[in-house]
Amino acid sequence: MLFCAHMTVSLPHDLDEHHREELLAEELNYFTALHRSGKWVHLWRIAGRRGNISVFDVESTEELHELLWHLPLFPFLIIEVTPLVEHPSLAAVSP
Amino acid sequence: MLFCAHMTVSLPHDLDEHHREELLAEELNYFTALHRSGKWVHLWRIAGRRGNISVFDVESTEELHELLWHLPLFPFLIIEVTPLVEHPSLAAVSP
Amino acid sequence: MLFCAHMTVSLPHDLDEHHREELLAEELNYFTALHRSGKWVHLWRIAGRRGNISVFDVESTEELHELLWHLPLFPFLIIEVTPLVEHPSLAAVSP
Amino acid sequence: MLFCAHMTVSLPHDLDEHHREELLAEELNYFTALHRSGKWVHLWRIAGRRGNISVFDVESTEELHELLWHLPLFPFLIIEVTPLVEHPSLAAVSP
Amino acid sequence: MLFCAHMTVSLPHDLDEHHREELLAEELNYFTALHRSGKWVHLWRIAGRRGNISVFDVESTEELHELLWHLPLFPFLIIEVTPLVEHPSLAAVSP
Amino acid sequence: MLFCAHMTVSLPHDLDEHHREELLAEELNYFTALHRSGKWVHLWRIAGRRGNISVFDVESTEELHELLWHLPLFPFLIIEVTPLVEHPSLAAVSP
Amino acid sequence: MLFCAHMTVSLPHDLDEHHREELLAEELNYFTALHRSGKWVHLWRIAGRRGNISVFDVESTEELHELLWHLPLFPFLIIEVTPLVEHPSLAAVSP
Amino acid sequence: MLFCAHMTVSLPHDLDEHHREELLAEELNYFTALHRSGKWVHLWRIAGRRGNISVFDVESTEELHELLWHLPLFPFLIIEVTPLVEHPSLAAVSP
Amino acid sequence: MLFCAHMTVSLPHDLDEHHREELLAEELNYFTALHRSGKWVHLWRIAGRRGNISVFDVESTEELHELLWHLPLFPFLIIEVTPLVEHPSLAAVSP
Amino acid sequence: MLFCAHMTVSLPHDLDEHHREELLAEELNYFTALHRSGKWVHLWRIAGRRGNISVFDVESTEELHELLWHLPLFPFLIIEVTPLVEHPSLAAVSP
Q: Least CB-CB distance to H47: which of B12, B61, B75?
């Protein structure tokens, strides 16, 4: 089941540099694990912004929420979730 | 080069039924050709809406514009284009 | 799996009265079947508006989309879907 | 009498950890009492957000306001209240 | 129980003149009855606009909705309802 | 001459508790005097919000501005002013 | 007493050309009379738009509303009214 | 003197095809003359939209308004004008 | 050449009282000089707000920008500029 | 390939004066290099604002993102990117 998540990151200007590096490293590890497990299918940087457009493939809204809620950067994120379904045109194309 | 396009479709209520069927059939053909050529990479229906989130992989903004401008439904679409780039986390994951 | 749908109805002023009555009757039948099957769990009218707040309990986003797409009033609706999950406070309360 | 409340929580990043834990514990107690009394009928977490959609069943707008105003997290909440009424389709379905 | 209703009127330009006069006359009768019964407490025209700010004193949200839904101009109105309660400062002033 | 003022209060989280109490006490005194003089005609709390809808009856926009500008909470208020006039339906009802 | 009015004109594309000319001629006459009487003090075209920024000097909100309501183009206008007062800096400058 | 104009074109769906072709041809002629005279300096199509971002170099706001007002497509345009000035960084770069 | 500037002032709550007084005194001097020179033609306080609507008469957008950029309160202002031209109705009225 | 970037600068009021000067000097150097290389084609200050409208000519969205991401002021910027293409009217004009 697919969900698009549009994320905007707002790191405070006065965030401790060390803490910031740690957060970003944890975020990378977190993404890596989810991407390898096939949950976090797509991740694109929005050009010119600290933000991204992501697509998740999960079993349920509960699983989606758990994944997002435990993002290391979660307290600094504004996330908009859009539920997706297969488009009929794509279904028609597939053999 | 990747671009996300968020499309909202507004078909007039009084559109002739035959014309409408034709438009939708042309739209499907148009998508099919572009999808097979690898230009229209992703197409997801937004749940509960006549609209979609698409990702295009094109050579240039000119090519993107040409593809969108000639969509059979173009006069009935509101399209928001977001340029995308590879996210560094994804780059770090790849072998 | 729960989804909130906020629906706004915009019936054209010049809609044929008979057609309008038919649509509303079909809408009622449609709702009745889904409510009895336990899919359309909640339906509240928003005071002072032709619109509603609904909660659906479905197996997937695909099922949700199918339900909404086939609403007899669909061409006249603006629908915003919000995925919901059980709130931890509610989980803590339950025995 | 039913009211929908859409709540967004904005906890300051520099909130003292202990104070924060206390607030969340008080919030849980507060919810528990109101839920058991039948006032706070529904509470759903919005997937991917620190926020919720709630439905209250109260005697009056005064009672609603008192309940919301004394939420332990009230100073950190943005609340939008929507008055609800029974939908005629639901009334038609009930025996 | 008090509710503020902010109403914006959008009469179509091509509305039949006779129908329009009828609607406005019905609207006046409707208001008159509700005002005399003490339900429609306040009604102010917004300067420079075809619209108003109203305050209703009703027994319930159901009664409020019935009153608004049956406004002769209802199909041409956009109504935003805000539930009100007595302000503590006013309570402190009263003897 | 009537004006509606929609006020939203944003007290900073770290406002000194004593200062805060003083401000709220001054605000009450300020309101009391204006209400008794017939200038601040209506004051309603918006349910679930620290904010209000007020109606002022003043001689001029200058008087209105002076009243609002000297509100003890003025630096923490966002105020939207709407000029009102007697609604013709109300005029028609009065004997 | 001064009020700023920001007006946007939306003439329907299919407005009868003769009717349109009449309306614009009436609008000019209307403005001329009010400008000569000192009521409609300022009128500026917004560059690149069919719209204007106006300043009215009237005795009351009632007078303002009457002036605006009877504008020949009123059914095609969206008007936003802002009450103005003399700025203290200007008062300080005047001898 | 430079102005940026962001233009959105909304051609009605039922515009007569011949009239539409004429309008677009006149628009091209209009642009050509202004571009050659150095008034309409830049014109870019916004990718995926019927609209453009333009830069005009004119003697005055009056000249700008005249140019825009007489655009053949003016009744179908929404234009937002932004006054521009030379950026100090660019001035520093120039020899 | 005329420009309307809509200014909103956001002075931080914790601004040093002395610095604040200085800023406001400088702002007054700045306005006084520009008003006497005929550049800052109109200045109105918006009733109930710390903000103003101003009209400037300048030689160019460069001059306008210089005037606004050097406002003592500039770092605390949000300014929206609207280019104005003489309205044809006003031109028709003048002898 | 052309992109328009609309940038708004929000420097914190309490930014260290020395750090601020350094940032602005680095920004100037950064712009100078990119302008000379033909990447940052246009840069205009928006009159009355700390912000700009820029046009970039780059090989790809990746290059655009790299340029923007490394702007010395990047943490203080809100950037909106609009992909541009050559307008057919301009193409028609060119010999």
A: B61
Query: Distance between CA atoms of A54 and A44, rounded to whole angstroms?
Result: 6
Give the separation between CA B91 and CA G55, rounded to whole angstroms.
59
> How many C-beta atoms surround the C-beta of residue B19 within 10 A?
9
Can you read off the two tokens belonging to residue F94? 């009065």
Query: What is the pTM (predicted TM-score) of this model?
Result: 0.94
Q: Residue A85 and residue C68: Cα distance in Å, rounded?
A: 12
CB half-sphere exposure, B63, CA atoms < 13 A: 13
Task: Determine the Cα–Cα distance for residues I46 and G66; give it in Å rounded to an integer.
Answer: 22
Long-range Cβ contacts of F61-66 (<8 Å, 24+ apart): F61/G1, F61/G2, F61/G3, F61/G83, F61/G84, F61/G85, F61/I47, F62/G1, F62/G85, F62/G86, F63/F39, F64/F3, F64/G83, F64/I47, F64/I48, F65/G83, F65/G85, F65/I45, F65/I47, F65/I48
Cβ partners under 8 Å of residue F54, min gap 6? F4, F5, F6, F7, F40, F42, F43, F44
Closest CA to J79 of J60, J47, J56: J56
Do the Cβ atoms of J3 and J64 come closer than 8 Å?
yes
Q: What sign results for the dihedral spanned by CA atoms H66, H72, H75, H79?
A: negative
Is the distance from CB of D67 to CB of D34 less than 8 angstroms?
yes
User: Tokens 């006013």 appear where?
Assistant: E90
Interface test with chain I among J24, J49, J53, J76, by most I beta carbons within 10 Å: J49
Burial of residue A80 (CB within 10 Å: 0-12, 13-18, 19+) is exposed
pLDDT digits (tens, 9 = 90+) for A29-47: 999 999 999 999 999 999 9
Q: What is the pLDDT along chain D (95 residues), one digit of tens a residue?
A: 999 999 999 998 888 999 999 999 999 999 999 999 999 999 999 999 999 999 999 999 999 999 999 999 999 999 999 999 999 998 888 75
Strand (E) positions, G19-67? 40-46, 51-57
Residue J91 C-beta-side C-alpha neighbours within 13 Å: 7
Give the dihedral of Cα atoms D32, D33, D37, D41; nearest 10 deg: -40
Residue J75: DSSP 8-state: G
Does residue C8 contact residue C49 with C-beta atoms inside 8 Å? yes
ipTM value for the complex: 0.92
Residue I54: both structure tokens together: 């101003």
Q: Enter the DSSP assignment of G59.
A: S
Distance between CA atoms of residues G15 and F83, nearest Å: 32
**Which two tokens mark H78?**
């929404």
CB contact under 8 A, I90 and G27: no
pLDDT in tens, F54-94: 999 999 999 999 999 999 999 999 999 999 999 999 888 87
Q: Which two tokens stand for residue J73?
A: 């002021």
Which amino acid is residue E61, in one-letter code? T
Are the beta carbons of I68 and J48 separated by less than 8 Å? yes
Q: Do C87 and D27 touch (CB under 8 A)?
A: no
| Interface probe, candidates D49, D50, D53, D78, chain A, greatest A C-beta count within 10 A | D49
Residues of chain I contacting G, Cβ within 8 Å: 2, 4, 27-28, 31-32, 35-36, 42-48, 52-53, 55, 82-90, 92-93
Per-residue exposure over G39-68, b if at least 16 CB sit within 10 Å of its own CB, e if not: ebebbbbbbbbbbbbbbbbbebbbbbbebb
Binned at pLDDT 50, 70 and 90, residue J91 comes out as: confident
Q: How confident is the model at residue A5 (pLDDT cuts 50, 70, 90)?
A: very high
B82 to chain H nearest CA, in Å? 10
